[in-house]
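Long-time lurker, first post. I've been practising inverse folding by hand and with some scripts of my own, and I keep getting stuck on stretches where the structure tokens seem ambiguous. Below is the full token string for one chain I'm working on. Before anyone asks, I'm not after the true native sequence, just a reasonable design that respects the backbone. If someone could post their per-position residues I'd love to compare against what I wrote down in my notebook.
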């Protein structure tokens, strides 16, 4: 099956921070793939903006190199790359100054979708928003895209929301959480809400518990100074894991429309119980063979910032009362894997006897690697000699069943940028959602920051600290193995 490419309206997209890491690694390669697939209109304009002094030829060279490094360009003829580069313009602009804005305005066209991607530090969001409005570059139809981190606590998130709201309506603001752009995450909604099979079982009566895991094998690398001010709770849990939890736990929205979906996600966040310290574990990776430890990777040798978090979360509503959600995320773990596991309850009575081999059903939703969903069912082992049961997967690896190559599935950024052009906010976070998520995570972070306790150490290549295993073992459950 070949995925359909639905063309979008013509657009001008300005990328602030166009020479930065995110633009070169994700945004421009994503746009290139949309261009190569035929989705980008012939007259679409991509306008890079940054303080660097360079002309458009030099900028196109920067982008060419980025594509060679980060996009799959080998399979594309040279004229496709050239064709893409012709869409690019560049303007030297300082977000905090007055130069460059009129040149930028002169490149923008009337009558096409106009979007501004803020791929710069959040401290510049307010400056850019203000200048876009006061210098006449944005109107009430323009869209702005803002990157994470959206604040570092409730107070700063509120301040950011307020500064954007001074110049833009909520319907114009696209807060990116790229996890929501992943194919499997959207498939989670399709599986839940387009099939009658699961929804009747999707509650505390039938689901024993849920596990959400986002594990990385890399350490903080060159991002040590940034990461050390953030930590796993701010960098991953408050946004990405929280969004995944919301999609699993939310009530069916009345329509697959932005505010209907986001209203339901917000209700989940507001129903989260405060997490007591006994239900949270934080860890920090230790040095290993040929590998530096966290404390060597960051500037502060006494840092108590966590590179790992595991927690048990309870949702206080009718649907989920009594079904815990276990979440964990960390760096330098055994395998790079992101998955959600829905563990159903055992059958109330096993007619085949206790030793027959029957196991509880389990659905796992893999975001990476190898995006797909599998459902473990119990069937009879073939052959004579009584009823022996065996646990088998119903495997829905997308690349296999849909006949698409993994590299041809649009990556989260390309999908989300096209959603901005289409004006579809469903997969973007609303301001009140972000604030509610901070209101829930702030007390957890404050407890850590007001203490001086070191996070629990763990070995590189392990599944995290021992205390994270105990967190779930004490409930008579086990984490799913971290499979690559
Ligand atoms: P980066 O590599 O440091 O790039 C920053 C960009 O902003 C550069 O193009 C820089 O170019 C430009 N810039 C800096 N100050 C400016 C100013 N006063 N006016 C205009 N342009 C200015 O940062 P990044 O990693 O790309 O991250 C960008 C944003 O995305 C940040 O909010 C980050 O948190 C977020 N983010 C990044 C990633 C990632 O993987 N990199 C992932 C998720 C979110 P000049 O120096 O030439 O001005």
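-- Answer (accepted) --
I ran through it position by position. Result:
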């Amino acid at each position: 099956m070949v995925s359909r490419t639905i063309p979008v309206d013509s657009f001008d997209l300005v990328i602030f921070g166009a020479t930065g890491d995110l633009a070169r690694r994700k945004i421009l390669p994503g746009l290139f793939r949309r261009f190569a697939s035929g989705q980008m209109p012939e007259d679409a304009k991509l306008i890079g903006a940054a303080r660097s002094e360079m002309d458009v030829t030099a900028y196109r060279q920067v982008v060419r190199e980025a594509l060679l490094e980060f996009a799959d360009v080998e399979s594309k003829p040279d004229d496709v790359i050239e064709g893409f580069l012709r869409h690019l313009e560049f303007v030297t602009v300082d977000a905090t100054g007055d130069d460059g804005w009129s040149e930028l305005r002169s490149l923008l066209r009337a009558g096409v979708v106009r979007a501004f991607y803020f791929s710069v530090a959040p401290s510049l969001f307010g400056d850019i928003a203000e200048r876009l409005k006061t210098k006449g570059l944005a109107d009430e139809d323009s869209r702005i895209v803002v990157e994470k981190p959206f604040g570092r606590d409730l107070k700063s998130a509120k301040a950011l929301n307020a500064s954007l709201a001074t110049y833009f309506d909520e319907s114009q603001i696209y807060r990116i959480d790229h996890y929501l752009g992943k194919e499997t995450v959207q498939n989670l909604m399709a599986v839940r809400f387009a099939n009658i099979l699961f929804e009747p079982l999707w509650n505390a009566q039938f689901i024993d518990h849920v596990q959400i895991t986002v594990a990385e094998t890399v350490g903080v690398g060159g991002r040590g100074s940034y990461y050390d001010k953030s930590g796993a709770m701010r960098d991953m849990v408050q946004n990405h894991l929280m969004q995944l939890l919301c999609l699993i736990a939310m009530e069916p929205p009345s329509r697959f429309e932005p505010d209907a979906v986001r209203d339901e996600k917000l209700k989940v966040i507001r129903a989260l119980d405060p997490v007591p310290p006994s239900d949270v574990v934080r860890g920090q990776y230790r040095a290993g063979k040929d590998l530096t430890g966290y404390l060597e990777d960051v500037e502060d040798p006494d840092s108590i910032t966590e590179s790992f978090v595991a927690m048990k979360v309870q949702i206080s509503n009718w649907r989920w009362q009594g079904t815990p959600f276990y979440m964990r995320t960390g760096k330098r773990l055994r395998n790079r894997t992101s998955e959600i596991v829905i563990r159903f309850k055992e059958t109330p009575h096993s007619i085949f006897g206790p030793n027959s081999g029957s196991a509880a059903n389990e659905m796992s939703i893999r975001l990476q690697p190898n995006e797909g969903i599998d459902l473990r069912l119990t069937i009879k082992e073939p052959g004579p000699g009584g009823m022996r049961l065996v646990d088998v997967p119903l495997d829905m690896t997308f690349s296999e069943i849909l006949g698409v190559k993994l590299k041809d599935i649009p990556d989260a950024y390309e999908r989300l940028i096209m959603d901005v052009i289409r004006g579809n906010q469903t997969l973007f976070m609303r301001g009140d959602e972000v604030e509610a998520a901070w209101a829930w995570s702030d007390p957890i972070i404050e407890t850590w920051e007001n203490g001086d306790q070191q996070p629990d150490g763990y070995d590189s290549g392990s599944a995290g600290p021992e205390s994270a295993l105990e967190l779930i073992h004490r409930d008579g459950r086990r984490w799913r193995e971290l499979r690559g």
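A couple of notes from the structure itself: The first strand starts at residue 11 and ends at 16. The CA atoms of residues 233 and 309 lie 7 Å apart. Happy to go over any region you disagree with.
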